[in-house]
Amino acid sequence: MSKKLKFLLPLFLFLVAVGFLAKGLFLNPHEVPSPLVGKPAPVFTAPLLGEAGKSFHSDEMKGQVWLLNVWASWCVACREEHPLLMEMAKTKKIITYGLDYKDTDAEAQQMLAAMGNPYDKVITDIDGKIGIDYGVYGVPETYLIDKLGVIRYKHTGPLTPEILLAKIVPLLNELQQ
Amino acid sequence: MKKLLITLMLASHFLLSANVALAGEAKPLAEDPVLEARLKAMSHELRCLVCQNQTLADSDAPLAEDLRKEIRAQMREGKSDQEVVDYLVARYGDFVRYRPPVNNSTALLWFGPFLLLILGGFVLYRALKRQAGGESFETED
């Protein structure tokens, strides 16, 4: 080993370490890959918002590709993604069900009345039990579920046009065929 | 003097017990101490996903409270610690465990330090051998 190489080797190793650390520094620690992607979506029955006495069973969605958007009236980031959900609803191309997570019906309805309702239906999860089954740890979260009821994609945090166009729409088109 | 001391002790005892009664969090302990001890031991090994650097035992986040409730309910149903941990891992992934399991993706994490140790030992052995043989770094080349 030449003397020059011996001098350069630690520097090289140091730069590799710096590279890894720099990458780690810019990772979002809140993006925890969900073990549920690729697995059947948890089955549940729950009341629907604003439709007293009616309940929803997740098997009703078999045969359709749909989004399950977890939100709440108390969640600030949900208001951030709300206009985008409204835009998506206008296209009428994506079936979006809301899961109203640990919220009161009155406050949820108040928010939808004020900001518009982008959801085809809203399922209520007052005690957060469905949320636990879906591994929800920070609202908003969005799940893409295929015709067989398998979760194909999960996004944690507010939806952005970039995520929608780069990830959700292509997958949706592919799954709907 | 002795009487005063006893009075003081009694007074402080009542004050302290009043404090305990006020702190609502201590209450569940009385319900089922064995179950609470199991919950406590387990929740020190689990990560709160909201705060991430806190354990489930330490966190005050609403989700942590919900998960503790869920764990309690499952333990009452008679589920073993392993079953409860599996339930959480199925939903939140291995990330909820502070002790990562040994599998393909964590093999480097578990065995990497030993590999480095062996490598370091080998380099040290060679350097020492070379020095013992009369060759030093200064006289190299």
Q: Which labels suit this protein?
A:
heterodimer; A: 177 residues; alpha/beta; five-stranded mixed beta sheet; two-stranded antiparallel ribbon; 7 strands; B: 141 residues; mainly alpha; 6 helices; 64% helix; 0% strand
Number of helices of chain B: 6
Mean pLDDT level of chain A: 91
Q: What order do the strands of the largest sheet of chain A run in, or round the barrel if closed?
A: 5-4-3-6-7
Structural class of chain B: mainly alpha
Largest sheet of chain A: 5 strands, mixed
Separation, N- and C-terminal Cα atoms of chain A: 60 Å
What is the quaternary state of this protein?
heterodimer
Number of helices of chain A: 5
Strand runs of chain A, count: 7
Q: Which secondary-structure class do the elements of chain A indicate?
A: alpha/beta
Outline type of chain A? elongated
Largest interface by Cβ-Cβ < 8 Å: A-B, 17 and 17 residues
Low-confidence stretches of chain B: 17-27
Beta-strand share of residues of chain A: 15-25%
User: Which descriptor suits the 3D outline of chain B?
Assistant: elongated
| Largest sheet report of chain B | none
Describe what you observe in this structure.
The complex is a heterodimer of chains A (177) and B (141). Chain A is of the alpha/beta class and 177 residues long. Chain A is 40% helix and 23% strand. Chain A has a 5-stranded mixed beta sheet. Chain A has a two-stranded antiparallel sheet with strand order 1-2. In chain A, helix 3 (105-115) links the parallel strand 4 (95-101) and strand 5 (121-125). The longest helix of chain A has 23 residues, at 3-25. Chain B has 141 residues and is mainly alpha-helical. Chain B contains 6 helices and no strands. In chain B, helix 3 packs across helix 4. Residues 17-27 of chain B have low confidence and may be disordered. The interface between A and B is medium-sized, with 17 and 17 residues.
